[in-house]
Design brief:
With 180 residues, the chain is mostly helical. The protein has one domain. It has 5 helices and no strands. The radius of gyration is 20 Å and the shape is elongated.
Length: 180
């Protein structure tokens, strides 16, 4: 594969990864969330679990694709000096790229919290032989986890939008040939 073709492929893969992540976050926030509020709580919980299970596969895949294609883009356009060296702190391009990488890290950390901490608290059934206090405690824990999940999902949507805007600003940087 030629260098120019690799550059174009990396750019398209990167945009696809961002579109899947950002589009999925928008759908979760503005379509699935309101739909859950219009159906009975038990059905809303099942819908939320099923949709979230599938979305997490897409979200983690998109984050991986963004990382892989971003690294490929950096090395195909020969700006790795912006990642490794003083340019990352001394030029607007380097600072923007560093900011994007840090914000991508925020998405990964939030995703890990949602996937490995909050989702397990939201899933599972209550045993038949529990006291009213245990049932209330479990219900409270699930509600708290649901609120945190909603909050982190909204933060992720905002962070992903900022990353996309920063990416567009990098792509428009004059004289760098970053897009193609």
């Amino acid at each position: 594969m030629t260098s120019e073709l690799m550059k174009i492929a990396a750019a398209y893969l990167h945009v696809i990864g961002v579109a899947v992540y950002l589009g999925g976050a928008v759908i979760m926030e503005f379509v699935v969330g309101p739909a859950q509020k219009s159906i009975p709580p038990a059905q809303a919980m099942v819908l939320g679990q099923k949709v979230a299970d599938r979305f997490l596969v897409f979200a983690w895949s998109a984050l991986g694709l963004i990382l892989a294609s971003g690294l490929l883009r950096i090395f195909t356009i020969r700006v790795e000096s912006f990642l490794f060296g003083e340019n990352v702190f001394s030029t607007p391009y380097g600072k923007t790229l560093l900011t994007m990488v840090c914000l991508w890290g925020v998405l990964v950390v939030n995703g890990a919290i949602i996937t490995f901490v909050l989702r397990p608290k939201l899933s599972g059934r209550m045993a038949a032989q529990v006291s009213a206090g245990q049932a209330q405690s479990t219900q409270d824990a699930k509600l708290k986890a649901a609120k945190w999940t909603t909050w982190l999902t909204r933060v992720d949507l905002g962070v992903a939008f900022v990353i996309a805007l920063l990416g567009v600003s990098l792509a428009q940087t004059k004289g760098t040939g970053l897009w193609w």
